[in-house]
Design goal:
With about 200 residues, the protein is of the alpha/beta class. It contains six helices and seven strands, in the order αββαβαβαβαββα. Helix 5 links the parallel strand 5 and strand 6. Helix 1 crosses helix 3 and helix 2 packs across helix 6. The termini are far apart. Pfam families: Flavodoxin_4 (PF12682).
Amino acid sequence: MYKKSFLSLMIMLLLATTSCSSEEPAAIEPGRTISGDAGKTLIVYFSWGGNTRIVANHIHDLIGGDIVEVEMVVPYPDTYEEVTQIAPGELESDYCPELKTKVENMDEYDTLIVGTPIWGGHLTSAMKSFLAGYDLSGKYIAPFCTHGGSGTAQSVSDIRSVCPNSTILGSLAVYGSQAENSRGDVEKWLEQIGILKNN
């Protein structure tokens, strides 16, 4: 009982996108970088409230290439309250939902830029399900997330556990409320991890 209440509280706190007026900078966490060419790149993201989609679109504007939104066969409800009732159980049970999204030519991509909101300190079940559906051995993965105060939390570790034979690059964490204004931080991150080259 207490565990369930605690998980619900954590989800509510971490799902929330802060409405404060402070200009919190995005956090770029150090990690591996690409020293040569990133090769063919796929931007893939899951977005419930729209913030992760905004950041994904900033990335797409900066580097072009292919972009895919992960969609579930049975989507989450539209209301925040209903999602906070569902998400704790999914995280606790390691649930992987069925997805509508399929990438038939995954072998062609050398680098994946992977975006997710942070729910309960973790990668969303939808993104975990997507990553688990492919053999991503030998590929670069550049993680980014939107959050309400947790930073990347356990999401990068979650990606490592699902993709143990991929090279995980440095990550980007953007406050949900700052997604619209994050383009400069996104550009800096892409340069730091070697995807966007300075001319």
